[in-house]
Amino acid sequence: MPSAFPEHALRELGRTEGSPDTLALLVRDQHTRRLLLLRALLDAVEAADERICPSALRARLRADWALLEAADEVAAASVVGGLRRSPARDRLLYPLVGPWVHGSLGVLTSATRAWSEGSWTEAGNRARALARHFAYFSALAAVATARAGMSFSTRLTARDGVLTLPSLGALRTAAPGAASVEAVFGERRVTLRQAAAVDVVVRWGDGVGGMSDAGAWRSAYALPGLVPGAAAVPLDDLDPCRVMSDGRRCQEVSEVVELNERDQERWRRSWSGAASLLWFGGGHRVAEVVSLVRCLVPLRTPRENPDGTSSGTLREAFGAVLSSAPVTPVTLAATLVHEVQHAKLAALSEMTALHRAGPEERYFAPWRPDPRPFDGVLQGVYSHTALADFFQRWALVSQAPEQRESAWYQHARYREQVRASLPTIMQSTDLTSVGRLLVDQLTATCDRMDETPPPPYERRCAEASVRAARELWRERHAYAID
Description:
Oligomer: single chain
Structural class: alpha+beta
Radius of gyration: 24 Å
Strand content: 5-15%
């Protein structure tokens, strides 16, 4: 077993659980990767051709980074999970900064490649896109520095007529496009000045959101801590980096959306209800959400299924869960359980190889109509095992007959889906020794669940559903199921 990941921690994750130390190990590794990636971006900018990254743009990035370094030194810091924490570092480690870093590196790399290949128009377009990327970083650095208690002034650039100040809110600028805004930061306040417009004054406290009477200002919004003492969780519908820089989003999810007050209240009610429901699945479900979920990104409700939920995670945005407005607290609780498992397994797979399988899409998975790659099946088996466990625990403790019946139905559905797909994983010769131990623990968890089977009717319904999915899959795809 590689020393980089302790065997006891792997066994915990294999049970779809995770002690505080194990979850902290995943978080610490992801945060270290983020800081290294930022360092790689700074180095790439310094090495970039002047025609791709002009000296003025390079100088601005240096200045913004110097602001962050000063804020990191001035503000009170603490050590959490083995990493130094401060307002500046917290901003850099915010989940949605991940897509910005990846996107900036991608734009810089593609611009350099286009120039070397003689595609000067494309290189010029990419160079202008890089300037837009760095405008976001300037706003991020300014807010982080101001939250550290420093007073200063700087000039920021809006994007498509909107200037976003991460964790505070967004200003709709008087001028369209890349409008210039002077920002004067003082003690927990910022004055935003534009040409031919009234100054906008925004004040803030320790939490998320900045308050202003100006109609052009929209405050950031956060949900209360999931449990007493837990940090508030931003419901982030403003950050321009909540999708990838090229417009990509998590596959198979709907587009991001901005919320009105009624939408926010709907989220708040579901979030409040989900907290108590998560306890039914065991204290570890609450603990992993509190430890790993640092923001929620609202998505548009699927047009083809208004009563359904669209959700996902981005590997580049560890700690963010993307989801459409939950129909009920149960829906949100299940979504959180589901997506947190994807985040855990993705983080683990970056620390140690779980398998050597390629990306070929050839495997049956009853939760999807299309063939899946091996890694997709592994991800699905892992998250569905956690859901089966969550609903079984709920069914066993629920005193309400309707809730108990619904929980058994959901348990049976997820457990049968895992039963249909787990052999694909178990029998694979592509698993590494680490992956084999993980899958052995998953198998043991499923065996433990089978000691208390669901009622016969729920089990028959689940078996029929998977059988129908398999038959339809066979009809649509010519090659055999592995």
